[in-house]
Amino acid sequence: LISSATNSLRMETEILEKKLQDAQTQLAEKDEDKEKEIQSLKRLITELEFQLTVEKNNKESFLDNMRKEMKHKSDELEKLTQERTQLIHSLSQVQEENTLLQETVRRECEERYELTAALTQAREQVLELKKLSGNFP
């Protein structure tokens, strides 16, 4: 009876040891799979961090370029604004000069008209004097 119980326990122990070995093998395989997955995820994280860095650098470079372009456009706008102001000032001076010249031409035309009228009147008087002096011996 004892021998039979011992054999039975020995068989049970062997079965349990076999199950324990199978469980340990499965656990080792799962650990290995998890380690592979962890390594894969670490590589993915590294790759994504690299892509993020590249994108960040690209955006910073793009922003720097945009800032430079905005500065250039701002400088150009300021220069054009100054040129416009100078042109407006020059135009104002030319308009004043033009107005002065027009007024001068108007006065000279009036003077010429007056002189022409006076000359015409003087000619008429000379002709009349000639007529009168031609009648007298």
From TrEMBL:
Keywords, ordered alphabetically: Coiled coil
InterPro entries xref list: LEKR1
Coiled-coil annotated spans: 6-111
Domain of life: Eukaryota
Identification of the protein by name: LEKR1 protein
Species name: Columbina picui
Taxonomic lineage from the root: Eukaryota, Metazoa, Chordata, Craniata, Vertebrata
